[in-house]
What we know:
This protein is an alpha+beta fold. It has helices at about 5-10, 55-65, 125-130, 140-150, and strands spanning about 15-25, 30-35, 40-45, 45-50, 70, 75-80, 85-90, 95-105, 105-110, 115-125.
Amino acid sequence: xxxxxxxxxxxxxxxxxxxxxxxxxxxxxxxxxxxxxxxxxxxxxxxxxxxxxxxxxxxxxxxxxxxxxxxxxxxxxxxxxxxxxxxxxxxxxxxxxxxxxxxxxxxxxxxxxxxxxxxxxxxxxxxxxxxxxxxxxxxxxxxxxxxxxxxxxx
Length: 154
C-alpha cells in the first residue's frame, strides 16, 4: 500500500512530514520547468521518496516519470525546509516537505509530458520573472539563477 495513503487513513488531513526529491536539469543556461497539472504552477520536476528508496534514486525516478528525461551525473544542489514548505492542497490535505534538490547538465531521453504535467520547457533566468513559480519551488529556482551567475548560494 502507498505510504502516504496509509498514513492518511490514520491522520486524515493533518500535516504529514514528507521528504521530497527533485533535479534541476540545466541545458544551455536554461532550467527545465514543469507546469503542474494539479495547480497550473511551474517548478522543477520531482516528488516524494518511497520507503527504503535512496533520495537520489527517487529524484531521478520522479524526473524520468514526469518528463521522459533520465538525469545523469546528478550532484546535490541543496536541502530546503522551513515555513515555505508547509503546503495545503485544494482538498485540505496538509504536508510539510523537506526537499532535497539535485543538479545536472547531463541527461538522456526526450521531453514527454506525463499526466502530472501540462507543459515542459527549458527557461532562461530572464524568462523566469514572467512565470508563476510554485511557492515551495521559488527558493531553489532563485538559487539556480544565482548559481549560473556565479554567485555563491551558501
